Amino acid sequence: MKFKALALILVLLAGLSGCTSYKNVPYLQNPEAVNQYDKEIPLYDAKIMPKDLLTIVVSCTNPELATDPQAAAPFNLTVQTPLNAALTNINTTTQPTLQQYLVNNDGEIDFPVLGRLKVGGLTKNQAEDLIREGLQPYLKEKPIVTVRMANYKISVLGEVARPGSFTVSNEKVNVLEALAMAGDMTVYGVRTDVKLIREDATGKREIIPLDLTKSDLVLSPYFYLKQNDILYVTPNKTKAKSSDIGTTTTTWISATSILISLASLIVTILR
After folding, report:
1. Mean pLDDT, to the nearest integer, of 175-199?
2. Distances (CA, A) of 147 to 47, 88, 140, 208
3. What is the DSSP letter of 124?
4. Cα separation of 40 and 88, whole Å?
5. Of the four listed, 40, 105, 166, 238, which is most buried by Cβ atoms within 10 Å?
6. Whole-model pTM above 0.90?
7. What are phi and psi of 168, to 5 degrees?
């Protein structure tokens, strides 16, 4: 009778531990809170920050100017990159590409004719409007201006399948999409303690803990990642213990090998 009671207790404990561990695995649990959220959430729009590389294209809408490739040429500067002479044995250059504009620490770029423009903190649409208004006196019309961020990237490291840095072409990516790019978490990743490392335009750095098991993550201001954000997935205790065991085991094996070698050497000398 005592044996049956003990076995029943062990089964219950095993079931409870299994439930507890499962609760920490699925993403976005209890979605009802999000589905019932009735406040309007604005669409995410990335803002230009220092060290962003901008590609800016200016086109004319007036049919007379549009057929003249030289009309907007002063505002579409191109550069040629020299090829590696060691590989080609000839000093040649690549095909001309549009010049990119690096945003300085003050949030400014040097644009042809217009000079220094303050674009830091603006969205792409706002930067396009700023340049369009500035160019209107020179082109006698409101041109088409397209601004793109050429180096919009995020990094994911820690307990993921494929850690690394990833370029985001559409300039919009959320936490779950970033994890998908990195092949999702491994079984050793702690879903309740993912660190977001962020630096703002003034250089201030933050480390924000994220709980991916809670559905209200999608309502968080940290759900969408900004350029140069870093996601770090914390390893669980099992991974930490296995790492310690591996290091200790390697040390013992090395020490044992040295002792055996010394013992063999001593025996050889004494003979």
Report:
1. 95
2. 12, 34, 21, 30
3. H
4. 58
5. 166
6. no
7. -110, 110
